[in-house]
């Protein structure tokens, strides 16, 4: 066999080995699922939300005043629990001016898995089925790396929430939360701080 022939055969063997190795690696390493593209209007969701870490109790530090919270005097809180089907159970509570507790339960589903940063929350149930209307109405637009605070918006900006694991944010956390809101086109003066025992009093957020 000539030198050129030997070189050609050797090159072919190297290429065949490379192709085989690439095939094995491609088979062994599953492809990452691309996030579902969903219309969130002018809002920019965070890249990813780990729903297991996001679950638990949150205090509402500030919010755009909404009719569904008109009965709430203070201590507005939310509890999120991941369900077996992947949806998230929602329980919102607050204390009324006469000292009673107002509560509502709902369910949230992700609209952009596996990123899970844009959800639709429903408080409408028909039998055993939750009814989800419209597109996402709970878009996480700001999130602390340690999941200590979060900022949630709605594409039409009719609602907005600043949440914390504690009754109040630190100065640095407040600055970061406000930056997330302004980056997404919110007017900070549309927000009111929420009365929380051990936290802040009602007032302007701007």
Q: How are the elements arranged and paired?
A:
Elements: H1 3-28, H2 51-54, E1 56-63, E2 74-82, E3 88-95, E4 101-110, E5 118-122, E6 125-126, E7 129-130, E8 138-143, E9 149-153, E10 160-164, H3 171-183, E11 192-193, E12 203-204
Antiparallel strand pairs: 1-2, 1-10, 1-11, 2-3, 3-4, 4-5, 5-8, 6-7, 8-9, 9-10, 11-12
Q: Which CATH-level-2 architecture?
A: Beta Barrel
Query: Unreliable runs, pLDDT <50, ≥5 residues?
Result: 1-31
Decide which structural class fits the backbone: alpha+beta
In the CATH hierarchy, what is the class? Answer: Mainly Beta
Question: What is the end-to-end distance?
Answer: 83 Å
Instruction: Please report the total strand number as a whole number.
Output: 12
Q: Which overall shape is indicated by the principal axes computed on the Cα atoms? A: globular
Average pLDDT, rounded to a whole number, is 86
Helix content: 10-25%
The CATH topology name reads: Lipocalin
Side-by-side strand order of the widest sheet: 1-2-3-4-5-8-9-10
H-E string: HHEEEEEEEEEEHEE
Specify the CATH homologous superfamily.
Answer: Calycin beta-barrel core domain
Work out the helix count.
Answer: 3
Number of domains: 1
The largest pleated sheet is described as: 8 strands, antiparallel, barrel
Radius of gyration: 24 Å
């Amino acid at each position: 066999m000539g030198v050129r022939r030997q070189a050609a055969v050797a090159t072919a063997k190297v290429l065949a080995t490379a192709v085989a190795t690439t095939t094995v690696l491609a088979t062994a390493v599953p492809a990452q699922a691309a996030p579902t593209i969903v219309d969130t209007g002018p809002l920019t969701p965070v890249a990813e939300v780990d729903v297991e870490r996001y679950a638990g109790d949150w205090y509402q530090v500030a919010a755009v005043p909404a009719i569904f919270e008109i009965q709430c005097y203070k201590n507005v809180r939310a509890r999120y629990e991941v369900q077996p089907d992947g949806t998230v159970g929602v329980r919102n509570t607050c204390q009324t001016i006469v000292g009673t507790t107002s509560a509502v339960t709902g369910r949230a589903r992700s609209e952009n898995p596996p990123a899970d940063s844009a959800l639709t929350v429903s408080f409408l149930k028909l039998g055993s089925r939750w009814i989800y209307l419209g597109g996402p109405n709970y878009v996480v637009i700001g999130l602390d790396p340690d999941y200590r605070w979060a900022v949630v918006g709605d594409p039409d900006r009719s609602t907005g929430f600043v949440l914390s694991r504690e009754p109040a944010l630190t100065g640095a956390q407040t600055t970061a939360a406000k930056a997330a809101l302004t980056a997404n086109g919110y007017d900070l003066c549309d927000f009111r701080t929420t009365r929380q025992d051990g936290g802040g009093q009602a007032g302007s957020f701007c």
